[in-house]
UniProtKB/TrEMBL annotation:
Protein name, per record: CYFIP related Rac1 interactor A
Species in which this protein is naturally found: Macaca mulatta
Cell compartments where the protein resides: Membrane
GO cellular component: membrane
One GO BP annotation of this record: regulation of actin filament polymerization
InterPro entries: CYRI, CYRIA/CYRIB_Rac1-bd
Membrane topology classification: Lipid-anchor
Family: Belongs to the CYRI family.
Known partners and oligomeric status: Interacts with RAC1 (GTP-bound form preferentially).
């Protein structure tokens, strides 16, 4: 945790200085086509989060069914409780696929020549705002998912039941909704502690590998510049005072955390090295913190520490 907090407290003289309007940025004509595509995805993000936050699971029903394997009524009760939950989990997973495509479209717009990442972010603020909203959603989704073990328990029960019925040559109606291939992909997704962040990391790395003529620095510089811009806005009273809501300050902090973590996943040698554009000191006393950078507990505590920092 030490290095992340140092990122939040370093000097900012050499950082890009401009205000990225997270509250009111509107697309220019040049941005509008991509902005509309991303907006169509993001409009579902709040309902996804609300649905995930309300997810209670079928723990009692599953427990009763497992403890009473010969009670047909309890088996049916557990199955009827799990099936609609699996449909909800499918919706979350399918949204991650839409988000992955949206991020790749944004990266293409924000990294293409002849402009630098700083120029892109300053000129195309509506797209930069959508990029920030994707990161903000991702951290909120993963935080909720990490706190809810019922998700994996429900899906594991679903898969065991499907497998058992397949052995008995039984086909259940829900398999028309969530077939074996879909179930396999969903299983890999929910096995991740931070599945949305993993999706964004994979999408970014896929973007880099597919665009071989585009230097990887264009992508990593876009991420590091976003971090720097957020930091400058938070630490410059003139910029900070232009935010009309405390929620925007928290949004900005979450975005900065998300970009640092994403940068660390994507950059060949990570965020905390001498060649990194993330301005963190090389403090060997925090090596143990850095080795845990990819752990879900580190990422969750990062958000908690940022919240504490914002109240300091």
């Amino acid at each position: 945790m030490g290095n992340l907090l140092k990122v939040l407290t370093r000097e900012i003289e050499n950082y890009p200085h401009f205000f990225l309007d997270f509250e009111n940025a509107q697309p220019t004509e040049g941005e509008r086509e991509i902005w509309n595509q991303i907006s169509a995805v993001l409009q579902d993000s709040e309902s996804i989060l609300a649905d995930l936050q309300a997810y209670k699971g079928a723990g009692p029903e599953i427990r009763d069914a497992i403890q009473n394997p010969n009670d047909i009524q309890l088996q049916e009760k557990a199955w009827n409780a799990v099936c609609p939950l699996v449909v909800r989990l499918k919706r979350f997973y399918e949204f991650s696929i839409r988000l992955e495509k949206a991020l790749q479209s944004l990266l293409e717009s924000l990294t293409c020549p002849p402009y630098t990442p700083t120029q892109h972010l300053e000129r195309e603020q509506a797209l930069a705002k959508e990029f920030a909203e994707i990161l903000h959603f991702t951290l909120r989704f993963d935080e909720l998912k990490m706190r809810n073990p019922a998700i994996q328990n429900d899906f594991s029960y679903y898969r065991r039941t499907i497998s058992r019925n397949r052995i008995n040559n039984m086909h259940l109606d829900i398999e028309n909704e969530v077939n074996n291939e879909m179930a396999n992909r969903m299983s890999l997704f929910y096995a991740e502690a931070t599945p949305m962040l993993k999706t964004l990391s994979n999408a970014t790395m896929h973007f880099v590998s597919e665009n071989k003529t585009l230097p990887i620095e264009n992508t990593t510089d876009c991420l590091s510049t976003m971090t720097s811009v957020c930091k400058v806005m938070l630490e410059t009273p003139e910029y900070r005072s232009r935010f009309t809501s405390e929620e925007t300050l928290m949004f900005c902090m979450r975005v900065m955390v998300g970009v640092i973590i994403l940068y660390d996943h994507v950059h060949p040698v990570g965020a905390f090295c001498k060649t990194s554009k993330i301005d963190a000191p090389q403090d060997h006393s925090t090596d143990s913190d850095l080795s845990n950078m990819h752990s879900p507990s580190w990422q969750l505590s990062s958000l908690q520490d940022v919240q504490a920092f914002s109240c300091a």
